[in-house]
Amino acid sequence: MEGGNHSAVSEFVLLGLTHSWEIQLVLLVFSSVLYVASMTGNILIMFSVTTDPHLHTPMYFLLANLSFIDLGVCSTGCPRMIYDLFRQHKIISFGGCIAQIFFIHFLGVTEMILLIAMAIDRYVAICKPLNYLTIMTSRKCILFTAAAWAFGFSYSLFQLTLIVNLPFCGPNIVDSFYCDLPRLLRLACTDTSRLQFIVFANNGVISVVSFFALLIGYIVILFTVWKHSSGGSHKALSTLSAHITVVLLVFVPIMFIYTSPHPNSQMDKFLALSDAVLTPFLNPVIYTFRNKEMKTAIKRSFRRLVIFRKIS
Predict the structure, then answer these.
(1) Is 312 helix (H, G, I), strand (E, B) or coil?
(2) Angle between helices 233-259 and 279-289 (to 10 degrees)
(3) Between β-strands 91-93 and 11-14, what pairing exists: parallel, antiparallel or unpaired?
(4) I need a labelling partner for 127 at 20 to 30 A (CA). Which of 4, 42, 76, 173 fits?
């Protein structure tokens, strides 16, 4: 036995999504295109919000942070998955596996908290419009964001304490395209049933409670918009529909993965793929095409980039 965690396993073998070469080729093209599009779209949103004074508002500040998180989400597992599609033997080191688990939970929980902050922002903007600027100050937005990052970091560290000192002596085969905590716990050379329950409680319960809290919050906002229907109700409904769509895209795969009675199912893999590749791509698409201000800002950003390129 060697290593800080008394583990004989120094690397894990990832089985990937499928053994079919044709499906792997489709996944390679699909994932590569979506990864490049995700990176481009989220960077463009961050650049537009940062450089355009018209977007220096709480809602777009939080949106820029969401785009930054999505950059991390799609970069945590997608590049390695694309690289592994070229390889017959998909190997990841023990340290690389632990790091992947850390960033998956860190960014995932941070995104959940940020979505709650965005829901609060929309509630104040729609239900208390006259007090919006006094309630959603720049200081409070920064505090919301800092709290999301701090909670995500501490939560992920706690998750690592469940696994980092466990003994791994074989087998070392992970039936997925990435390292995930539940699957890794089942490979430990000791009884981890109690730890598996803790993981279920941490991830499953937190995601379900957060999802339904957000859903109830948006129902309250929608009821307020319907009750006080006015000329601006269409814009409010358009914004809310974008937020609700993003919430569904983020939470549904997570809830299914961590509350499913059959955690090794093939469906889990493809839902994880959706969460890692498709959601970071759809977020900027939803917020761009459903938001007139954002579309206008992105056009201005393009013009500035073209002018800068001509000057240089």
Answers:
(1) coil
(2) 170
(3) antiparallel
(4) 42
Bridge partners of 92, per DSSP, are: 12
- d(CA 236, CA 86) in angstroms, rounded, equals 46
Which amino acid, 195? Answer: L
| Per-residue model confidence as pLDDT tens digits over 246-304 | 888 888 888 877 776 555 567 777 888 888 888 888 888 887 766 778 878 777 777 77
Cα separation values, 226 from 156, 233, 239, Å:
40, 8, 14
Q: CB-based contacts of 210: which residues, under 8 Å, 6+ apart?
A: 112, 115, 116, 251
- Residue given tokens 């998180």 in the structure block: 69
Tell me the DSSP string of 85-152.
Answer: TT-SS-EEEHHHHHHHHHHHHHHHHHHHHHHHHHHHHHHHHHHSGGGHHHHS-HHHHHHHHHHHHHHH
Please tell me the predicted confidence (pLDDT) of residue 302: 72
d(CA 272, CA 104) in angstroms, rounded, equals 11
Give every CB contact of residue 103 below 8 A, 6+ residues apart in sequence: 72, 76, 156
Give 143's pLDDT tier (boundaries 50, 70, 90). Answer: very high
d(CA 70, CA 27): 20
Ramachandran quadrant class, 122 (left: phi over 0; alpha: psi -120 to 50; beta: rest): alpha
**Which among 186, 58, 171, 165 is positioned nearest to 117, based on CA atoms?**
58
The predicted-structure confidence for 158-201, as pLDDT tens digits, reads as follows 888 888 888 888 788 888 888 888 888 888 888 888 888 888 87
DSSP-derived 3-state class of residue 12 = strand
pTM, two decimals, is 0.86
DSSP letters, 50-96, are HH-GGG-SHHHHHHHHHHHHHHHHHHHHHHHHHHHTT-SS-EEEHHH
